[in-house]
Design brief:
The protein is mostly beta strands. The protein has one domain (about 80-475): Porin (Beta Barrel). The chain is about 5% helix and about 45% strand. It has helices spanning about 60-75, 190-195, 380-385; strands at about 80-90, 100-115, 120-130, 145-160, 160-170, 205-210, 220-225, 240, 245-250, 270-275, 280-290, 295, 305, 310-320, 325-335, 350-360, 365-375, 395-405, 410-420, 425-435, 440-450, 465-475. The strands form three sheets. It has an 18-stranded antiparallel barrel. A two-stranded antiparallel sheet has the order 8-9. A two-stranded antiparallel sheet has the order 12-13. Strand 6 (about 205-210) and strand 7 form a beta hairpin. The radius of gyration is 28 Å and the shape is globular.
């Protein structure tokens, strides 16, 4: 399945020094009085009278409460943090295959960390109540149920120039902003489209990560012994275009897959060779595994499959003019159909991305990206299709625009991100308003709007998924 798919905020502040001239001395008797020269107050007046209940110092009460919380947390043998959050979302259009509510959940996120000079142990996860999904039995692969383990790892350094991270972890590579070429780690597209925090776009990997450091070049190796697929759109929560049925389907026709569950023979390997060349981050990538979302179909069972895939890529990122530019490319070698003659397996393709980001005015940042997928054997693909089948374009193009405005001493964040495909005539707009009340409380509301000329295009198939949402988070 095609995927659209983090960027940095830049600010500047000028400080103007002010010279102060030395003040002349005051006449005798009008200078600073020593505390020892101040007569004591009569007994009973040595302190200020207390205010009536409810009129005390709110900041002091908050500080005392925070101090108590810190004492309780300091007593733990590990560092603990997290948040409590509730979010609710509603669809803008009627989808007969889905509930009207797109989101309606309560979440408790906890993160524990214990480290010393030689070892770090991390554990994080979510306790989730989600009546929209109606699934409460935990499924750690799909993220369903009342428990989702995000991280469970150990990190240690066997040598001065090497790190080993073993276990469940969140991984990310590449230079794209919500567009991914060489980042072949799992994504959660359901979370992304229904209005959860963008951090939940990244799904966890069960992997071993080895990092080797050298003055000339660094090498990252990620080995996943058991295939980690995307948490892809399968119809249970978001409707999609089903080519077999010739229409948009949802809960009435969920995507059934042939899972690659085998350990060590359904594995994945990802390599990244990277170094800094002057001010530019450069990298080479290699991946061997499988398409992360279903990209094939078994003609006998009718189930969707994850064909074999190898990816070869490169990227560069660094300063250009007054901003930051990036470029990335990748060749997707679809090893189960290298000639492009099997209509049930996705073709090999080239993917290219270029982007640019700059602060437009103080506290307002803008960025743009151009992305293209070029099908390598489009003629063979077109000839292999049965009569009446939907023909995909040889070149699928996407333009993105991001605007981020910070206001009210950066406590208010306005964000707009738009995907638009000139080749397919469809798009997807993400807009949000986030207000930070204090160090603990945040309020957020947002919009996910899909549009397109036909339901067979990538964004167009999700038009009935368009939704608005609101959330409240308390962090600790």
């Amino acid at each position: 399945m095609k995927r659209p798919v983090l960027f940095s905020l830049l600010g500047c502040m000028l400080l103007n020094p002010v010279a102060h001239a030395e003040e002349p001395a005051l006449p005798m008797g009008l200078g600073v009085v020593s505390p020892a020269d101040v007569p004591a107050l009569p007994q009973g007046l040595s302190s200020e009278p207390s205010l009536p209940m409810g009129l005390g110092d709110g900041n002091k009460e908050e500080a005392v409460a925070q101090e108590r919380a810190d004492v309780w947390r300091d007593a733990l043998p590990f560092d603990l943090s997290g948040f409590i959050e509730t979010r609710y979302g509603m669809r803008l259009h009627r989808d007969t295959q889905q509930k009207r509510a797109s989101l309606g959940e309560g979440r408790l996120h906890l993160q524990a960390l214990q480290s010393n000079e030689s070892l770090t142990v991390g554990l994080s996860g979510d306790l989730l109540y989600d009546p929209v999904a109606d699934e409460y039995e935990p499924d750690l692969e799909n993220g369903d149920g009342v428990l989702d383990v995000r991280e469970a790892y150990v990190l240690f350094r066997p040598a001065e120039n090497a790190d080993v991270k073993l276990g469940r972890q969140i991984l990310t590579w590449g230079t794209g902003d919500l567009l991914f070429i060489n980042d072949l780690f799992p994504k959660d597209w359901n979370s992304f489209f229904i209005g959860r925090d963008v951090e939940y776009l990244k799904a966890p990997s069960d992997a071993v990560k080895l990092a080797f450091y050298h003055p000339e070049v660094n090498l990252d190796v990620v080995y996943t012994p058991r295939f980690d697929a995307d948490r892809f759109i399968d119809g249970r929560r978001i409707s999609y275009y089903n080519a077999g049925a010739g229409s948009v389907a949802g809960r009435n026709l969920p995507v059934n897959t042939e899972a690659r569950d085998g350990w060590f023979h359904g594995d994945e390997l990802a390599l990244r060779l990277h170094r800094l060349v002057e001010a530019y981050e450069t990298a080479l990538y290699y991946y061997q595994g499988y398409w992360k979302s279903p990209a094939g179909q078994n003609p006998l069972s009718g189930r969707y499959t994850f064909p074999r895939l190898s990816v070869y890529g490169a990227s560069v990122r660094g300063p250009v003019l007054a901003g930051i530019a990036n470029a990335e490319l990748g060749y997707y070698d679809s090893r189960d159909d290298r000639r492009g003659v099997n209509p049930l397996v996705r073709n090999s393709e080239w993917r290219v991305l270029v982007g640019y980001e700059q602060e437009l005015v103080p506290e307002l940042t803008g960025s743009m990206q151009y992305y293209i997928e070029h099908m390598q054997d489009h003629t063979a693909y077109r000839q292999s299709l049965p009569a009446g089948a939907v023909v995909e374009d040889a070149n699928h193009q996407v333009l993105t625009l991001r605007l981020t405005q910070l206001l009210m001493q950066q406590n208010l964040k306005l964000s707009l991100f738009n995907f638009y495909s000139p080749s397919a005539g469809d798009g997807y707009t993400r807009a949000s308003v986030n207000y930070k009340l204090d160090d603990h409380w945040q309020l957020e509301t947002g919009l996910n709007l899909f549009y397109g000329q036909r339901h067979t295009s990538f964004f167009g198939q999700f038009e009935d998924t368009s939704n608005i949402y609101a959330g409240v988070r308390y962090s600790f």
